[in-house]
What we know:
It is a single chain. The chain has one domain (4-221): Rhopdopsin 7-helix transmembrane proteins, CATH 1.20.1070. The chain has 232 residues and is mainly alpha-helical. The N and C termini lie far apart (55 Å). It has seven helices and no strands. It is globular and about 50 Å long.
Amino acid sequence: MPGSSAYLVWLLCTLAEAAVVVCSLRSGSFRKYLALNCYMIACIVVSALRWQILNSYGLTSHEYLYTYWNSDVLLTVGLYFTLTSLYSQVFEEMGAERSIRLGAIVLLFGTAAFSFAIVMQSGPRVTGRFFVEASQNLNFVGLVLTYVLWGAVLKLRETRTRLIQLILSLGIFFSLLAATYALRNLYPPLHQLLQALAPVTECLLPITWAYAFWRVPEDARLTPARLAAVPR
């Protein structure tokens, strides 16, 4: 079973996720960032479900591992569509929301098909390996798309402070996940350490998002000079 520090981080992460929803409601931005808030609510529900399974069956049980990896890939898909909603926010003046949603769905199914093709070459136990592979691949796609979105923010000289902070927070989160996966593959002895630090990494995203809704007004703007100078 996890130690007391792991339980504390787990609790803090869940409270931070709830804080995102509360601060979003308080600022009147719940509907504007509906996908993001639905993702946070899903995280809270999944956290409660994992807690129940953990206490009933134990950390190394098949039930907990199955629940963890299945819920992990579902949350990754939810985060992927949260990123898509941020794309729509950036490109809303161009009326490109429908094209963005269609492209996101095509890319999602393409990633799932690619993951399944890789797993099929690995022999038995396709289901469990598929969820692990799909989650990792979607995280990588999310990382690339977040940096592409940041490039669009600079190119279009987006000035909405809250939106910029939400995107930057997501970019940092995906970068940390990618670094964790890379270190696990390159340095297997670090696996236990990285596994222990993973919950801390997961806490950073809801904490920074809660801060964005709590402290950054919706009408706050950054001056273009504070962004990187990119010729249009």
